[in-house]
Every structure is written in structure tokens, then in C-alpha cells.
Amino acid sequence: MPKEYARKLRINTQIQAELAQLIRTELSDKRVAGVTVTGVDVAPDLRQARVTVSLLGSDEQLKTAVEGLNHAAGKLRHGLGDRLKLRTVPNLRFVPDLALREGDRVSGMIRSAVQADRQHAQERGEGEDESKGG
User: Fold this and answer.
1) CA 93, CA 71: separation in Å to the nearest integer?
2) What are phi and psi of 35, to 5 degrees?
3) DSSP 110-127
4) Where along the chain do its domains lie?
5) 106-130 burial string, b = 16+ CB within 10 Å, else e?
6) Most CB atoms closer than 10 Å: which of 4, 54, 121, 133?
7) What dotted CATH number matches 2-97?
8) Cβ–Cβ contacts within 10 Å for residue 23, how many?
9) Nearest to 45 by CA among 16, 14, 19, 7
10) DSSP element (H, E) containing 61
């Protein structure tokens, strides 16, 4: 089993690197400009690959980019076939990587909570300082 895991990890890494290059050099679709391939997860039988992508921009731009990539999946798969030494080149399914966006959202919530705590502490601190100062 560890040997299979190492092979899958190697294939995921190779596909990620090659896809990033293919998207940059072979696609002229403006919808996919600036896309970053953040991960690849190939099925054990190598027939399917889930490719996560991110994009600096709005959620709508990311959705449009994913649609563009899924539209070009056949061309990208063919390009992978030319570059990789695999018996089976997986079908590609592109999905948005929401982890970065979720992380930003959570960070924003934490910043807001910390700021609110500081404000409450200052409000309470002023009253406490007066009583301690005597």
C-alpha cells in the first residue's frame, strides 16, 4: 500500500506541475488568466482527477475561470498525455479551491472579535484604573 500511495502522490504532483504550465502556455481563454492550480487528487484507478484551482479575484471570477477550465479539460488532458508517461491519462474535473477564501473569512472574523475584545477591555479598563488608582 505505501508504494501505491507514493505513486499516487508522484502522479498528483506531476499533473499539477504540467497543468499549471499548460494553462499558462496553451490556453488563450481570458477567463482562466491568473489561475493557480492548488492541488490534484487522482482516483486510485487513474481515470479521474479532481483539480482544485484558485484565483485572486471575486467568487464570480473564480466560478467563470472554473467553467473555462472545465470547457478546456479535453485539450488539457491531451496535453498531459503528450507530456506524461502514463498508460491512462485521467479525465480532469476542475473545482474552486475555497480553502483560501474560507481562511480569509475566518481571519476577518477573528480580527473583528479581537478588535471588539480590545474595545470592551478599554471600556472596562478605564473604570478599573480609577478604582485602583486610590
Assistant:
1) 10
2) -75, 140
3) HHHHHHHHHHHHHHHHHH
4) 2-97, 99-134
5) eeeeeeeeeeeeeeeeeeeeeeeee
6) 54
7) 3.30.300.20
8) 25
9) 7
10) helix 59-71
Check: CB of residue 109 under 8 Å from CB of residue 88: no
pLDDT digits (tens, 9 = 90+) for 54-111: 998 888 999 999 999 999 999 999 999 999 888 889 999 999 998 777 777 788 889 8
Grid coordinates belonging to 58: 471575486
**Residue reference for cell 505505501:** 2
Q: Which amino acid is at 68?
A: G
Residues 6+ apart with CB under 8 A from 4: 44
| Amino acid symbol at 5 | Y
pLDDT, mean of residues 22-45: 93
Q: How far apart are CA 5 and CA 101, in angstroms?
A: 29
Cell numbers that stand for 43 in this block: 482516483
Name residues whose C-beta falls within 8 Å of residue 48's C-beta, 6 or more positions apart in sequence: 42, 90, 91, 93
Whole-angstrom Cα distance, residue 99 to residue 38? 10
The Cα 118–Cα 54 span in angstroms is: 34
